[in-house]
Fold these 2 entries.
Entry 1:
Amino acid sequence: MEPLSTTGLIRQEFSAQPYESFRHDLRGICGAFNPHLVQEDDKVFGAARRIDVCGMEFAHISNDLDYVRRDWDDIRQDAAEHLFLILQMEGTCGVEHFGRQNVLDVGECILIDSTRPTTFYFNGKFSNHLSLHLPRQLMYTESKVDFDISRKLLADDPMAVMLRALVAKIMNTPESQSGASHLRDLVYNATRQAFLSDGKGDETLHALPDSASKRIQMVELLIDRHLTESDLSARWLATQLGVSIRTLQQDFQGMGVTCTTVIRDRRLHFARQKIEQLKIEKSCGTIAEVAYSAGFNDISYFNRSFKELFDCAPTDILRPDAAGKSDKS
């Protein structure tokens, strides 16, 4: 697979390991994903390991499972929110996500949203892929273009070739090297451009019945695209959808949350990712500046809300001994 073949991640000597050990590693790296064996007493041939390089986090996942699933209950367990850029390196992998079904062959790429249910199918055959964990809210909020989730890039697509080359470059670039932060920004922008929206995702969404489920999905898209704008509120969202504020509130009540809470928590995730970026890049920016840029006007309220959601203060993220990564179950 051209440049990625130089990273030592392909044609490794894998071994069988107990299911519980693999499950523990997978969930510790990627969050609440549930692996399922072909036969109950089988072991897993492969491994789940985390790779931290150039200030970015990867998951290197190899297995011969039946499937791996993540549903709404699993999503609610995780404080972390990511986009996963998945590059298939060996074998094949079926992906069911965001109303689409794809099969990834060697060299192909796909973008997955951790806030949506996902199933990966392997059918007991060996698969080896690399997953780059991208900061979800930074990817959306700092984007000047619309990009598609769950659209596959073929191996010979020039954008897929470019992404594989960039990932290989990252794998061989120490974080201390001059320009490492610019390389991260390049990867963020290249991923957005590679999955530039072709409009088909919106067509799929509009094809859904006019229901609470469709409205919730459209609201979440609007929140992601307008997160830091001062006008963003439940009332503004209701106006955009052409429904009453009461109807929108009832939609969210069915999920056990409020629209205002969803907006607040998305802004907090964005703020946390910005603070982690400050730490990685050793920037002189302040937490107050991050809070204001995320749409908060009251710093005391921001600090209380941050601690409530993440069980730590914003300043804790900047401590030298802090991991600086979002918590995972």
Entry 2:
Amino acid sequence: MNMNADMLEMIRAFPEQVLEAIGIGRKAAITPADPETSHVMVCGMGGSAIAADFVAGFVRDHCRVPVLVNKRYDLPACVDQRSIAVLSSYSGNTEETLEAWERAGRAGARRIALSSAGELLRRAESNGLETVVLPSGWPSPRACLGYSLVLQLFILLKLGLIDDFFIEILETTVQQLSGSREEIESAASHLADLLQHQRIVLYAPDHLEPACLRFRQQLNENAKMLCWHHVIPEMNHNELVGWRDQQAGLAALFLRDREELPRIKARMELTREVVGHYAASSLEVYARGTSHLEKSIYLVHLLDYTSYYLAKLRGVDPVEVRVIDFLKAELLKEG
């Protein structure tokens, strides 16, 4: 990847990135899990963590042990000698992940590093521990979701905790994405036009929450927009009551699945009816595909494009994240 690549180029490269990751995953040298393994804990932040959110959902009905996601410096008490900790950081220098690496080691967990470079790989290699190395050179780690997502799935496969159900789905899905690029870009551009002057609230059925969270994060980083999200049915037990006044300038975007459970479908439609009385606009976007994995990948790609087009409409640089750079620099001063 060109170090000067713009965000549009990186988004367009997503299908090729997924295929490249499959090739890397097939060659990954990860030995099978001990039969006494109690769970897999994936530790990461940002794009690495959202990849783990997706993976945990995809394997929920396939994996013989729970896959948990940790987005903190510390670790829960359940991490011990029967745990496998996957430490994921594209740069290899994410401080929360490095701290989790050390804590996982002290707890006696088996550790696997997933990174392109940096301190995380150095520590793993110096201790003779397992690594999966990502391609380097991508200027925006959030654009590396394909690598992290696919290779976290392959780690579980190599551990013997899931079968290879996902490989054919991924290969077929990215072929479809590549063949529909112009259509997807056009749909994303149109959606951006509808959303550009509004603050966005996202709602989705609970199984699509990672896609919802990914879009929220892309709106934050690419389009420099504030946003929030919630999931149904939980939202029906609290946030729904907050829709009481007219909300000028607020757009409610519902991510939908044509195969929602009947009660979820009823809740989604009733929620949109209630919210529609107060929001400035109410929109729906339907996932495409037959599997959870295929639907999620489609939404990621469509909404990544949407965040890019919103950035352009707003006149902001979708790659720039100066405020995060500032925060990291200030933290370094604190020691």
